[in-house]
Write a structure and sequence with these properties.
Layout: H1 2-19, H2 69-74, H3 85-93, H4 98-112, H5 119-155, H6 160-163, H7 168-193, H8 199-215, H9 225-248, H10 253-272, H11 278-284, H12 289-293, H13 295-319, H14 323-344, H15 352-375
Helix pairs in contact: 4-5, 4-9, 4-15, 5-7, 5-8, 5-9, 5-11, 7-8, 8-9, 9-10, 10-13, 13-14, 13-15, 14-15
């Protein structure tokens, strides 16, 4: 299966890299705290330029005031222009998106009921966090930016790839290094945990394939707002939880179902990032939910998915005879709703970063409450 992935990735990256070049522009991409990584988009279908293809004009969207070096290292909005290739490579991995995956591993370890504060267990968890965060999330973000390059030329022409700050060949090399590093960590963890079946490796491989088909032709899951955003939510909630639980205990069917249901909240979080890309998505024919339903309806779909999912999980915990955990989860939903009205529902584009910075910490704490409930 690994060889098939390698072949597909090589063909997908190389062929697109040679067939379609984006004129260099100057200028960085917003990402958000927590789940919100920079939205994944895909390139439009190939068309013959001799048939009169009309290319959208790239607006002037350079960050004002030169941008922040700190934001550049995190890969978020307001980043400074950078010529150092290592800083650009770090920016492509969007470190600001790593914490949710790291937290997911913590939740999985907690849900296993078998994590102990020993040197060995702490070391295992750190390697699992490195696999989920810097390696595989970094791989996902880099490959997304690669296949985003034409839409970024419309929405955010100052990002590293469309601006020409880094070459496409260098991006492809980074994709391979991060992917193989993540899969290597997964294999080490299976041996370390004494697994007879390499479950962590297959989870890592499955997540890597999901990231690839999300962004790349021919499947390009991102073309469909529902499927694409749920895949994104599952990759941020379910997969790292499964890896952490499988590393320290047993991954059971009820946990798989519970976390997949929780991923509906992740779907809502993914929609947050769709609002700032409406212009490019519409130009490229992508059916994100704000494009398909309009911004007004999409913002209510977004908060509804987040809130209804968590309330349902609280109801499940109450029915399972764990009222204190259910009440704790409900208490964590209240500030999320407050910040939805305070920021997101007022203006999802203007306040996206503020909303996620203020509301998402309560959501991830709710994940831990649920994990602890399932471990007892």
């Amino acid at each position: 299966m690994a060889s098939l992935l390698n072949t597909a990735l090589s063909v997908g990256l190389t062929s697109n890299g040679r067939a379609r070049r984006v004129r260099a522009r100057s200028l960085v991409s917003p990402a958000s705290v927590s789940f919100s990584r920079r939205r994944l988009t895909i390139i439009a279908a190939e068309t013959d330029t001799n048939e009169g293809t009309v290319k959208p004009q790239v607006p002037d969207k350079a960050p004002a005031g030169g941008g922040s070096s700190f934001n550049q290292l995190l890969g978020i909005k307001g980043a400074a222009q950078e010529t150092n290739k290592w800083k650009i490579r770090l920016q492509l991995t969007k470190p600001v998106t790593w914490p949710p995956l790291v937290w997911g591993v913590v939740c999985g370890a907690a849900a296993s009921g078998n994590f102990h504060w020993t040197l060995e267990d702490v070391a295992k968890s750190i390697v699992c966090m490195m696999m989920s965060g810097p390696f595989l999330t970094g791989y996902t973000q880099t490959i997304n930016d690669y296949y985003d390059r034409e839409i970024d030329a419309i929405n955010e022409p100052y990002r590293p790839i469309p601006s020409g700050a880094i070459s496409e060949d260098e991006v492809i090399t980074q994709v391979w290094v991060l992917l193989l590093g993540g899969l290597g960590c997964a294999g080490i963890l299976d041996v370390w945990a004494g697994h007879t079946f390499p479950i962590v490796f297959y989870l890592a491989l499955g997540g890597s394939l999901l990231s690839y088909i999300y962004s790349a032709p021919p499947l390009k899951l991102k073309q469909n707002g529902w499927i694409g955003n749920f895949a994104l939510g599952a990759s941020y909630i379910s997969l790292p939880w499964w890896a952490g639980q499988a590393l320290f205990g047993t991954l059971t069917p009820d946990i798989i179902v519970l976390t997949l249901l929780y991923s509906l909240a992740g779907l809502g979080i993914a929609i947050v990032n769709d609002f700032k890309s409406i212009e490019g998505d519409r130009a490229m024919g992508l059916q994100s939910l704000p494009v398909a339903f309009g911004a007004e309806a999409a913002k209510w779909i977004c908060v509804g998915a987040i809130d209804i999912t968590q309330i349902s999980i609280a109801g499940y915990l109450l029915g399972a005879g764990k009222p204190y955990y259910a009440l704790a989860l409900l208490a964590l939903i209240i500030p999320q709703v407050f910040f939805q009205f305070q920021y997101f529902l007022k203006d999802p584009v203007k306040y996206d970063v503020k909303y996620q910075a203020s509301a998402q910490p309560f959501l991830v704490l709710g994940l831990l409450v649920t994990a602890l409930a399932t471990s007892h």
